[in-house]
Design brief:
Arc Repressor Mutant, subunit A; Four Helix Bundle (Hemerythrin (Met), subunit A); 2 domains
Length: 190
């Protein structure tokens, strides 16, 4: 349910009916309420007394701040990645880009999100700094919620896929300037 909310299965402000959630997730009312309480703590849903739960509307200022921090951190990996990536690393990244590309036409944002996450996690691990790649992963996970960008359409997902392949090519050509440009564009489009 968390991923469905974060990746746009439900619209901002949409009311979440318990009976529908029970059917969709094959869970008891108790389990659904427990998950909704957890999602409320994460500010992904809001609870209105006597109305129920609805998908929270993200704060635009917080979204801009998150995008700024991500850009600062992710751009600064480009030179490290371009210098450190081995041929095997590049081949593995190419395979992850292909896996994401194939997921775009499939149903379900969770599969697409998992493939996208695998690509980006491996990309930033190539920088060789586990603390930096861990921070980037955490911020990327937090920033998926509230996207008004590419994740809202199949066309946008295709554009992201193309950029993944271009990133791999920039790494293959040891071009940190192009990789930096692509990373920045990728974040801004999100």
């Amino acid at each position: 349910m968390r991923d469905d909310i974060r990746f746009g299965t439900y619209s901002f402000g949409q009311w979440l009916k318990l009976i529908d959630l029970q059917k969709r997730y094959r869970a008891t009312q108790f389990e659904i309420r427990r998950v909704l309480d957890s999602l409320k703590t994460e500010r992904l849903v809001e609870h209105r007394v006597n109305h129920g739960f609805r998908v929270a509307t993200p704060d635009p200022a917080e979204r801009r701040q998150m995008q700024f921090v991500r850009t600062v951190l992710e751009r600064n990996t480009a030179s490290l990645i371009a210098a450190r990536a081995s041929a095997a690393d590049i081949d593995a990244l190419q395979g992850l880009a292909q896996a994401f590309d194939q997921s775009v036409e499939l149903e379900g944002r969770q599969l697409q999100a998992a493939a996208n996450s695998a690509f980006h996690q491996r990309l930033y691990e190539l920088a060789g700094n586990p603390i930096l790649s861990g921070l980037i992963r955490e911020l990327r996970e937090r920033s998926h919620y509230g996207t008004t960008g590419r994740w809202r359409s199949t066309e946008g997902l295709h554009e992201s896929s193309v950029e993944h392949f271009l990133m791999v090519e920039a790494i293959r050509h040891r071009d940190p300037i192009e990789l930096d440009r692509l990373i920045t564009r990728h974040i801004e489009a999100f």
